[in-house]
Amino acid sequence: MSADTAGTASATVTEGGPDTDPVAEAGLDTDALLDDPDIRIVVCCGSGGVGKTTTAAALGVRAAERGRKVVVLTIDPARRLAQSMGIDQLDNVPRRVDGIDGDGELHAMMLDMKRTFDETVEAHADAERAKAILENPFYQSLSAGFAGTQEYMAMEKLGQLRARDEWDLIIVDTPPSRSALDFLDAPKRLGSFLDGKFIRLLMAPAKVGGRAGMKFLNVGMSMMSGTLGKLLGGQFLRDVQTFVAAMDTMFGGFRSRADATYKLLQAPGTAFLVVATPEQDALREAAYFVERLAAEDMPLAGLVLNRVHGSEASRLSAEQALTAAENLDDARIVDQRAGKAGLGDRVAPDPAVTASGTTEPPLSPEAGQASGPQTSAEHQDTTETEPPHENIAHAATAPEGDTVDALDTADAIDVISIEELTAGLLRLHAERMQVVARENRTRDRFTALHPEVLVTAVEALPGDVHDLDGLRAIGDRLADGSAPAPAGAA
Amino acid sequence: MSRFQVVSGKGGTGKTTVAAALALALATEGRRTLLVEVEGRQGIAQLFGSDALPYEERKIAVAPGGGEVYALAIDAERALLDYLQMFYKLGSAGRALKKLGAIDFATTIAPGVRDVLLTGKACEAVRRKDKQGRFVYDHVIMDAPPTGRVTRFLNVNDEVAGLAKIGPIHNQAQAVMRVLKSPQTAVHLVTLLEEMPVQETADGIAELHAAELPVGSVFVNMVRPHLLDEDALRTAAGGRRKEIAKTLTRAGVTGSAALVRPLVAQAAEHAERVGLEREQRAVLAGLGLPTAELPLIGDGVDLAALHDLATELRKQGAGEEGDT
């Protein structure tokens, strides 16, 4: 669990506290991954809302502070992330992030889908043709972001960054797609469409018709363009045809670059990290993704399990905590009754009178018996040190409206009894332990399906990340998380 | 009240769960609702523990008082073929189109056509009447794409209407847009009491307003109970540790001395969360929209939990506003 095991590549895999249950899943050593000079691309994928982008940014900061020259390519338009890296707004060009310790460098950029598409067109067509494409209404809609464009352009950008060879490590998070698999499917789909027979037919029926064997297709084509023309309107179809004609020279390029990027992802220099939270839906998607990556021969490094809860007080079970809390409630109810008796006829009292006129509630006999004479004496001590208006806190929780209304609430705030406070702590703990147990169950189900997947568990932070320090804290947790969860599999 | 209720939200906020609970809540007293999904994820089937939904409206649950919830997974390709069949009696020519990749083109690549087909199918269900002239469904609830994409998804009809300037797709887009921009429709956003989803909700509402789409309610999902208020926690973090240890012992907890520090630390985390949640509640209150809150369901949402959530929504009158 210490950050200084970082340098030893495989240490954390076998590491495990002496008193923790052996967890079936092996640990993922993220530092070893970030330090590996042969790893040039890390792809963070997973379903929406699991913290992919934050994970990517935290890995970027950590890798840079471990001496690498890193660029983080994010797809998430959330400005918050850019701000956490001290940049007002990310754009389509990598920007250097200030405040990174050590010799490494961190750059960050956000994918601008349309800009990337435009650049690709400009880079691969002469000026006149590029202009025709960029002004085409069909192109403008296509590039503004419809099904698949974002995924395709993410791949395109990744390919470009890698080709420049300026960075040791490219960390990319994947678009918030309908399903995690779109990231892998969409580029191929768009590529095969742009290369496909349909678009060639649309573009040049005459050319195809010239070949005797294609006669049938030509018939199909005229029927089809007739239908589509009717359906979409002639202008739309003409826009598409113009677009396709203008893009003609680029088709081979699109397809071959999509293929090249795909191969790049399969290469040993790439590592996929599947990101999830210990919740059913997220882990189901994660399992799906693990299977898909295997089917596509894509190298999976492991699973980052975000927002995992643990407890350092796991010795005390949820049930024990609740029982103890109830014991205190029982004691309190008796106290309260006694306290009310002290208020006399229960007419809504003047707050001042209440505060001064309260008598010490006698210790309930039940509580005394339950915990023995010694603790009963302790309790006596405790109550004596309490502010005298303990009853006000009790009354504030009582249903009697008059009593509550009459109270000065500012006063009531200070006067939570030690029993209430302790019972609250116990209930909080019980809730925490229930969360831990639930997360462990969900996690076990995943492990049963995919015992081969290395896991790092990132402990939940109570708040959001706002700055580099926040990202560093996540980075520390990413590195530490390969040890089993503190609470074990209780 | 709005007959077409669109439910969106940031990924991970549980919009499918909220959509399903809303469909159940609105189906009470003999009413009939249709719950549609458009992203091919089969989230509804998983939630209701049923087999994968076909492209067919089928009854998936009953609500108290004889109400019924139907469900439909809209598939763009099938919707297009249906559509072509309906208007052009295409028959086998539809298959030929498919073989050539034209259907694939129209449903995956052609800008916005896919979205028009999906929203179009849902709008058709909203408007459908039986022989007696009554609406077949009292409400249609859509589990829509996430907040970041929902405005474009719903507004894409405008885009298509602009791009395809004549023809049936153009007309379809116009008709769909009329339904979507009318008070018959309400777009709800699901959020958690966390900074990012709340920010995204605020941004989403601004985008919906800009596109003149009717915004409904904000659903705050997975709300956890506040077991201890912040002031109590501040006290806990203060100098009462010894007392806490004693009280723990008195409550029957053994070895309490070692437990105080972690328990107080957990309480401090809780306090931080409660504070952050309060800030986010204030941001949400500033949006000036009707708000409903749903509790966190710990052990995974099943049918029983959906009924509980639906009861909760009914209590809060969710989905009842609009179309006054």
Protein architecture, described:
The complex is a heterodimer of chains A (490) and B (324). Chain A has 490 residues and is an alpha/beta fold. Helices cover 58% and strands 9% of the residues of chain A. Chain A folds into 2 domains: 3-309 and 460-480, P-loop containing nucleotide triphosphate hydrolases (Rossmann fold); 318-427, no CATH class. The model of chain B has no long low-confidence stretch (mean pLDDT 86). Chain B has an 8-stranded mixed beta sheet with strand order 3-4-2-5-1-6-7-8, sandwiched between helices. The radius of gyration of chain B is 24 Å and the shape is elongated. Chains A and B meet through α7, α9, α10, α12 and α13 of A and α4, α5, α7, α8 and α9 of B.
How would you sum up this structure in a few lines?
The complex is a heterodimer of chains A (490) and B (324). Chain A has helices at 11-14, 30-35, 52-65, 79-84, 113-124, 127-135, 137-143, 149-164, 182-195, 197-203, 205-209, 215-232, 234-247, 251-266, 280-295, 318-342, 351-357, 365-385, 390-397, 401-406, 409-414, 418-449, 468-480, and strands spanning 41-45, 69-74, 95-96, 105-110, 169-173, 270-276, 300-308, 455-459.
